[in-house]
């Protein structure tokens, strides 16, 4: 991601933005705009769409059926220019950058200062692919490959690991397990066939095996 006003076209810094409860603007109402809206809604953003015409949008999205106005950028954390009018998209980008509002331009990513990656989602697991705006088609192709390789069981795996971590880490810290030993315990958990168990519907067995490894790590620390 480039900083506001930075004219570079490469060297983006990949980050994850916490947009929960933050106001975000999407200019445009077509298929591309709808995809951007879906991604923002999934991130918990408060989304406003501005366009003379718009596809049906998710519940909770504020839709303004009118042309874009400069004031639409007021108070926005992020803007996405996704209309089918290149001149309008360029205008949105210019105004957003002048106001230090992060902006993505769907048809010309390097005109903005934010590049939105192609994302493969499996529950809370997100695998993002970015080409720095050079080839969105390649990013989509790689995302599709990742979606084939990493199935829904990886979302289940992340949910299991998150639950185990929340319960085990405080106990391990209280027991004086050093950071290196805690990391080793988690690597041992990941060496288990958890993905295969989850994919075959044997979630209880996956949970049992993971807990056994973590309990053994605690026992080893106490001995």
Please specify the SSE layout and strand pairing.
Blueprint: E1 23-27, H1 31-42, E2 46-51, E3 62-65, E4 78-81, H2 86-98, E5 102-105, E6 118-122, E7 125-129, H3 136-149, H4 153-174, H5 179-190, H6 194-199, H7 203-222
Helix pairs in contact: 4-7, 5-7
What does this structure look like?
By secondary structure, the protein is α/β, with parallel strands linked by helices. It folds into 3 domains: 1-10 and 20-116, NAD(P)-binding Rossmann-like Domain (Rossmann fold, 3-Layer(aba) Sandwich); 117-150, Double Stranded RNA Binding Domain (2-Layer Sandwich); 153-222, no CATH class. Helices cover 44% and strands 15% of the residues. The chain contains 7 helices and 7 strands. The chain has helices spanning 31-42, 86-98, 136-149, 153-174, 179-190, 194-199, 203-222; strands spanning 23-27, 46-51, 62-65, 78-81, 102-105, 118-122, 125-129. The strands form 2 sheets. The protein has a 5-stranded parallel beta sheet, with helices on both faces. A two-stranded antiparallel sheet has the order 6-7. The longest helix is centred in the C-terminal third of the chain and has 22 residues, at 153-174. The model is unreliable at 1-9 (pLDDT under 50).
Give a brief description.
With 223 residues, the chain is of the alpha/beta class. The protein is built from 7 helices and 7 strands. It has 3 domains: 107 residues, 3-Layer(aba) Sandwich (Rossmann fold), CATH 3.40.50.720; 34 residues, Double Stranded RNA Binding Domain (2-Layer Sandwich); 70 residues, no CATH class.
Counting structural domains, the number is: 3
| Oligomeric state of the chains in view | single chain
Strand order of the largest sheet: 3-2-1-4-5
CATH H level, superfamily name of the largest domain: NAD(P)-binding Rossmann-like Domain
Backbone CA Rg = 22 Å
Spatial gap, N to C terminus: 49 Å
pLDDT average, as an integer?
Answer: 92
CATH-derived topology of the largest domain: Rossmann fold
Stretches with pLDDT under 50, minimum 5 residues: 1-9
Q: What is the CATH architecture assignment of the largest domain?
A: 3-Layer(aba) Sandwich
The ordered H/E elements are EHEEEHEEEHHHHH
Structural class: alpha/beta
Helix-residue proportion: 40-55%
CATH class of the largest domain: Alpha Beta
Largest sheet: 5 strands, parallel
- The total strand number stands at 7
SS strand fraction: 5-15%
> Which term fits the overall shape?
elongated
DSSP summary: helix tally: 7
């Amino acid at each position: 991601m480039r900083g506001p006003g930075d004219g570079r076209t490469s060297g983006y810094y990949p980050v994850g933005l916490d947009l929960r409860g933050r106001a975000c603007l999407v200019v445009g109402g077509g298929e591309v705009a709808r995809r951007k809206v879906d991604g923002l809604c999934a991130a918990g953003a408060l989304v406003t769409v501005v366009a003379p015409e718009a596809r049906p949008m998710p519940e909770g999205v504020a839709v303004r059926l009118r042309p874009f106005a400069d004031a639409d950028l007021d108070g926005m954390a992020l803007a996405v220019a996704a209309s089918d009018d290149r001149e309008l998209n360029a205008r949105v980008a210019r105004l957003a950058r002048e106001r230090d509002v992060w902006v993505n331009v769907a048809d010309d990513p390097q005109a903005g200062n934010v590049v939105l990656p192609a994302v493969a989602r499996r529950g809370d697991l997100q695998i993002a692919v970015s080409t720095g705006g050079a080839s969105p088609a390649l990013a989509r192709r790689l995302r599709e490959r990742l979606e084939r390789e990493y199935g829904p069981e990886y979302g289940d795996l992340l949910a299991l690991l998150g639950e185990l971590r929340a319960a085990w880490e405080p106990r391990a810290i209280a027991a004086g397990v050093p950071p290196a030993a805690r990391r080793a315990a988690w690597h041992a958990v990941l060496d288990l066939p958890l993905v295969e168990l989850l994919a075959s519907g044997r979630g209880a067995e996956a949970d049992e095996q993971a807990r056994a490894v973590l309990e053994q790590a605690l026992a080893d620390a106490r001995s």
